[in-house]
Design a protein that fits this description.
With 486 residues, the chain is of the alpha/beta class. 29% of the residues lie in helices and 22% in strands. Helix 11 runs parallel beside helix 12. The chain starts with 5 loop residues before the first helix and ends with a strand.
C-alpha cells in the first residue's frame, strides 16, 4: 500500500475546506410537502415504539395521520394486547369485584418489540391486522368471573381503565380494542376447584399464550385447544403430556424447573415424584415427552430449561428425533460424555427443519465423523442457521475441528457460538484466526460469524481481531470474543 504524503494531505484539506453548501434546503426534506400516502407508507415501516411513541409527537400532522383516518376523519382502530396476571392467594378471597378499589392494577400501554400478527377472528372484529402495544392487568384469581357475561364486564372495565391512562391527545373518542392475548398464573393452584376455575377462565378468554408457575401434573388438560404458546415454570412434579394431542395449534413450549434445581434431589431419587423419570409402555422405558412427537404435532419451538429435572437422556433423544417440525430447540445436558456420539449425530441429522440448536456439549471429532456418515447415507442437508456448542476447558484443536466441520457439513449455518466453561478458558487467538482465514480462502459460503464466549482474552489480541474483521471480503466470516480482557 502506498504511503500518503504530506502534500497529498494538504491538497485534500484544501479541497474539503472549499466545499460549501450553496442551498441548505437541497439537503433537507420538508415533511409538509410530502403527500399523505408517502408519509403513511413511511409510518408503516416503523417499529411499534417509533410508530406509537415517537412519530405522533413530532407534529400535529403526524399525530392526525397516525391516529385519524385521512378520509373519514374518524379515529383509526387500535388494538392493545392484554396480559392478565392472576394472583392466587393462599386462602380463598370473599366475593367481590375483580377491578376497582385497588384490587386490580393496570399498567399503561407499552410498545411491543415487534409487530404481532392477529388471528383472523380478531382482524374481522377490529379491522386491524397487527398489534404493536400491550399492557398487563393484575387481578385476584378468586374474583375474576368465569361466565361469559362476567368476563365481558371484566374486559370492559379493563378498557375503561386503559382509556383513562392514555395521553389526553389520544383519549378523545379513541377507537381502542383490547385482546386477551396472554394469561399468567403467578402462584400455585390450591385445589381441584381452582383447576376447574382456571380451565373455565382460559376457555372463555381463549388466550394465545399461557404461562403457569408451579403447574399441577394435569396442567395440559386445563389448556384450551386454541393455545399457541405455553410456558411452564418451577415444575416440581412429573407432568402428563398425553392431553397435548388436543392442542392442535400448539407451536411453542417452554418448560423449566425451580431455580437451582429441586433441593435435596440426587440420582438416587429417580423413583420419587419430583424427578422426571422415564415412563414404561409394554415393559419398555419411554420418555414422558413422547406425546409431543406425534404425527400431528405442530410444535415448532421447544425450550427445556437447565433446571428441568430430567434423569434420562437415553429415552429423550429418540423422542426428539421424531419432532419433525421443530425450528428451534434449546436444551441442556446433551453431553457427549454421557451419550454415544452416534446417538447425538442421529439427533443432529434427524431434525432437518431445525433453524436454531442450543446446545450440544463437549463433542469431539468422533461426533463430527458420525454426522458426516449420517448425512452421506441419508443424502439430506441440514437447515440450521444458528448453532451453539458448549465446552469445558477445550483444547484449541477441538475448537478448530468444530469450526471446520460446521463450515463443511452445515453450509446453512450463519452463526456458530461457543460457550466455554471451567478455569482454563484461554483461547489461542492466532489459531482461531488461522482456521477462519482458511475458510475465507476456500470460498465456501455460509458461515458468517463465530462467537466465543467466556474466554480470557489478552489485550494485545484485540488489534488482531479488529484487523481480521475489517478486511472481511464481501461479508466474509468474522469472529468476536466475549469475556475478560487482560
Amino acid at each position: 500500500m502506498a504511503a500518503v504524503t504530506e502534500e497529498a494531505l494538504s491538497a485534500l484539506t484544501e479541497n474539503l475546506n472549499s466545499v460549501s453548501l450553496i442551498d441548505d434546503q437541497a439537503f433537507f426534506i420538508d415533511s409538509t410537502k410530502l403527500p399523505d400516502k408517502v408519509l403513511l407508507g413511511i409510518f408503516n415501516r416503523l417499529d411499534p415504539h417509533d410508530y406509537h411513541r415517537v412519530a405522533p409527537r413530532v407534529c400535529r400532522r403526524f399525530h392526525k395521520l397516525i391516529r385519524l383516518n385521512p378520509t373519514t376523519k374518524l379515529p383509526n382502530p387500535r388494538v392493545i394486547l392484554l396480559n392478565v396476571h392472576l394472583l392466587v392467594p393462599k386462602t380463598p378471597t370473599p366475593a367481590g369485584p375483580a377491578i376497582g378499589s385497588g384490587r386490580c392494577r393496570c399498567t399503561p400501554p407499552l410498545p411491543l418489540d415487534t409487530w404481532t400478527p392477529l388471528p383472523t377472528c380478531y382482524v374481522d372484529a377490529t379491522q386491524v391486522r397487527t398489534a404493536g402495544e400491550g399492557l398487563v392487568v393484575q387481578a385476584n384469581f378468586d374474583r375474576v368471573p368465569v361466565d361469559r357475561a362476567g368476563l365481558a364486564g371484566f374486559l370492559n372495565c379493563t378498557l375503561a381503565a386503559l382509556v383513562g391512562r392514555l395521553p389526553r391527545s389520544d383519549s378523545h373518542s379513541p377507537n381502542v380494542s383490547v385482546v386477551p392475548w396472554e394469561v399468567t398464573v403467578l402462584s400455585p393452584l390450591r385445589s381441584d376447584e381452582d383447576k376447574v376455575r382456571l380451565a373455565a377462565i382460559l376457555a372463555r378468554l381463549s388466550p394465545r399464550v399461557v404461562t403457569i408457575v408451579s403447574p399441577p401434573p394435569d396442567v395440559m388438560s386445563l389448556l384450551p385447544p386454541s393455545i399457541v404458546a405455553v410456558r411452564l415454570e418451577n415444575i416440581l412434579r412429573r407432568l402428563d403430556f398425553a392431553p397435548v394431542e388436543r392442542l392442535e395449534n400448539l407451536a411453542k413450549l417452554e418448560i423449566d424447573g425451580p431455580l437451582g434445581g429441586i433441593e435435596g434431589q440426587s440420582d438416587s431419587d429417580s423413583d420419587s415424584d419430583v424427578s422426571i423419570t422415564p415412563a414404561t409402555v409394554n415393559g419398555a422405558p419411554t420418555c414422558h415427552l413422547a406425546p409431543l412427537a406425534t404425527r400431528k404435532s405442530t410444535l415448532q419451538t421447544l425450550r427445556i430449561g437447565q433446571w428441568y429435572p430430567l434423569t434420562s437422556y437415553t429415552t429423550l433423544i429418540p423422542t426428539l428425533c421424531k419432532m419433525s417440525n421443530l425450528h428451534l430447540l434449546h436444551i441442556k445436558g446433551l453431553y457427549q460424555g454421557d451419550q454415544i456420539p452416534s446417538d447425538l449425530a442421529n439427533l443432529f441429522c434427524s431434525l432437518t427443519t431445525l433453524r436454531e440448536f442450543d446446545a450440544i456439549s463437549d463433542v469431539d471429532q468422533a461426533f463430527w465423523d458420525a454426522v458426516k456418515d449420517r448425512l452421506a447415507k441419508a443424502n439430506t442437508q441440514l437447515s440450521i442457521r444458528r448453532l451453539v456448542l458448549e465446552y469445558t476447558e477445550p483444547s484449541i484443536d477441538v475448537i478448530s475441528a468444530a469450526i471446520r466441520s460446521v463450515s463443511t457439513l452445515v453450509p446453512s449455518c450463519l452463526q456458530l457460538m461457543f460457550r466455554l466453561h471451567g478455569n482454563g478458558k484461554e483461547v489461542e487467538t492466532d489459531a482461531v484466526l488461522e482456521v477462519l482465514e482458511e475458510i475465507r480462502k476456500s470460498g465456501r459460503r455460509g458461515l458468517r460469524n463465530v462467537v466465543i464466549r467466556g474466554v480470557t482474552l489478552p489485550l494485545g489480541d484485540i488489534p488482531k481481531i479488529a484487523e481480521f474483521n475489517f478486511r472481511a471480503p464481501g461479508g466474509g466470516v468474522t469472529v468476536s470474543f466475549r469475556g475478560v480482557t487482560l
